[in-house]
Amino acid sequence: MAFKGEFTPPGDKSVSHRLVLMSIIGEGEMHVTGLSDCEDVKSSLAIFRTLGGEASGSGARWTLKGLGGKFLTNPSEPVELDCGNSGTTMRLLSGILAGIPGIYVLDGDSQLRRRPMERVADPLRRMGGQVETTGGKPPVTITGSALHGIQYNNNDGSAQLKSAVIFAALSAEGPTRIFEPVPTRDHTERMLSAFGAKVCLCGQQEVEINPGYPTLPESFNTPADPSAAAFFLTGAAIIPGSLVTANNILLSGGRIGYLKVLDRMGASIAINMEQEKPEPSGTVTIEYKGRLTATEVEAEEVPSLIDEVPILALAAARAEGVSVFRQVRELRLKETDRLTAIKHQLGALGVRVWVENDDLFIEGTDSFIMPETLDSSHDHRMAMAIYIALALAGKSVPVIGDESIAISYPGFKEDLARLTSA
Length: 422
Ligand code: S3P
Known about the structure:
Blueprint: E1 4-7, H1 13-25, E2 29-33, H2 39-50, E3 54-58, E4 61-65, E5 79-82, H3 87-97, E6 103-107, H4 118-126, E7 130-134, E8 137-143, E9 147-148, E10 151-153, H5 159-169, E11 172-173, E12 176-179, H6 187-194, E13 199-201, E14 206-209, E15 219-221, H7 226-238, E16 243-250, H8 257-264, E17 268-275, E18 281-287, E19 296-297, H9 309-318, E20 322-325, H10 338-348, E21 352-356, E22 359-363, E23 374-375, H11 380-393, E24 399-400, H12 412-419
Parallel strand pairs: 1-16, 2-15, 5-6, 9-11, 10-12, 19-20, 23-24
Antiparallel strand pairs: 2-4, 3-4, 6-8, 7-8, 12-14, 13-14, 16-18, 17-18, 20-22, 21-22
The structure holds shikimate-3-phosphate (S3P).
């Protein structure tokens, strides 16, 4: 089933989370268009409200009245904050709350409760934060306290950990400096700097933060999510007869590593940049031009395509030759262990997949076998990659756990039906 036509995925999830979470500490009233309507961002919105924030609107249009960190009255009992399935909410919020008086208990659903939180607790403790995990995982209890700046090396290559430290640094004494061996998505620092916080992007791999909260802009337009667009765009590169255009896509360098990889594999991609600031955005068109060739994805590229590995793995599964994704161990720590999930689901389709020393190898094939069901492990990105595999095979089998798609792309199935109906 070829993909044909145009689509606009929801507003970028990473930027949407940051807009809502920055409203906890930012002053002012902000009119947002293009906010993602996904379940993860709803978790951040619910927490903003639990802390006393006013959010009015629906769908993609919201007005957020910044709290300026002024729920500062010491709550006599712990405030319980439900992060749902969202690791981004839990990690970024940990940084925000570490320096604000109060006791906060951050919890989430059964999937989030399996994800590691010591990696965020550790740098926050070094800043003087009081952060307790439950055996290294959620619930995480934070007792807001006086913080001080540190030097932090983002050796895990995680934008969430970097962002938690940046947020904590806004209420810490003295400067904080963050170094990144490999650049990760930089929305937190770019947005805070645009919103008047003392955040300096000193080159691609260094950020310096001095204390002080941001002021929310009067309006903010969120471009659409490149990670959500990746499913149909990659699908178009591998399904004969396809030609799709994704509108208004966020095109910042830390997010479009997958387009560079598809380009290297031989995909026909046209990017039309429409806006440079506050974040670059534009349309992306991909037309099927023939079978892709295998590629090697270097470890340094991984942070710029970390959420796209499940769909790129599908492209590799249909490419000519053996592809390798180097050092993708971070995939084990996502909503599910995506390394294992990719191995099992592509394996179920008859693809040879193996993992050696955290490198993922995939041997391309020109046809799939079709099992009776496929299992997404309740992981939204696995589920969407499986639907693209089914469209490619022209088959329909039950996808276990596909309700998880609403975590990032509630309109995915409608867009799928539309793009395959032409
Ligand atoms: C995100 C960062 C990435 C990504 C996640 C969103 C963010 O996680 O996988 O979906 O918004 O900062 P890590 O920073 O843990 O790699």
